[in-house]
Amino acid sequence: xxxxxxxxxNVRKQFGGLVAVNNVxxxxxxxxxxxxxxxxxxxxxxxxNLISGALKPTAGEIKLGHERISGLxxxxxxxxxxxRTFQLVRVLPxxxxxxxxxxxxxxxHQRLWGEEARKLAHQLLERVGLxxxxxxPVSAMTYIDQKRVELARSLASNPRVLLLDEWLAxxxxxELQIGIELIAExxxxxxxxxxxxxxxDAIRTLCDRCVVMSSGVKIAEGGVAETLSDPEVVRAYLGx
Length: 240
Ligand code: ADP
What we know:
The protein is of the alpha/beta class. The chain contains nine helices and ten strands.
């Protein structure tokens, strides 16, 4: 039986009077590609921020394996093995691709330095299709290539759980295909991934299971095909 990589238990996040996440629970298994979906404003980004520690829950608990991570700082949570990409790419534009990825290796929970970090950066840049561009300044790269750099940097920490926050957003159709294939390969390698995504084809193609949120509440959970055809889910999206 698989272990839980991440458990979210009765998590609530309130901003003043607004309840952005309301008593949400779900579990993600090791090696699973798990989708977190829902219309705009449903609380997905807030949930990603709660998992990564950018925000602290008002109530409830998040565990990485058996260890409680909710309440720890983002920095601590990253060290424990949760790594993420951002909706709007966050790379260090004045540095080259290799340096950006090395930063992930140094910062991550395995803390590689110097030549070891450089070697890993090269492998990962190769892995995301940027083998020949290790020394290109990131500011000179196309948007998808910057996204690839950010993904390689997230992988450099060898995370137990990788969070992809709309990683496929803003890609043109051919780039999207490449992006989907890349995520599928990561899944095949046994990575545990939680993805927030608006591209429904990607969710259908890639995810094992998903949770659907609407107005801060979990409205459905399960295998992707049945969940997306759930009448309540269809209604939530039509109202988007
Ligand atoms: P999604 O990612 O699904 O679009 P969000 O998590 O961004 O949804 O937002 C959920 C709700 O929480 C929205 O009503 C949003 O306006 C509100 N919200 C998100 N972040 C904050 C914040 N820092 N302060 C106040 N309200 C917020």
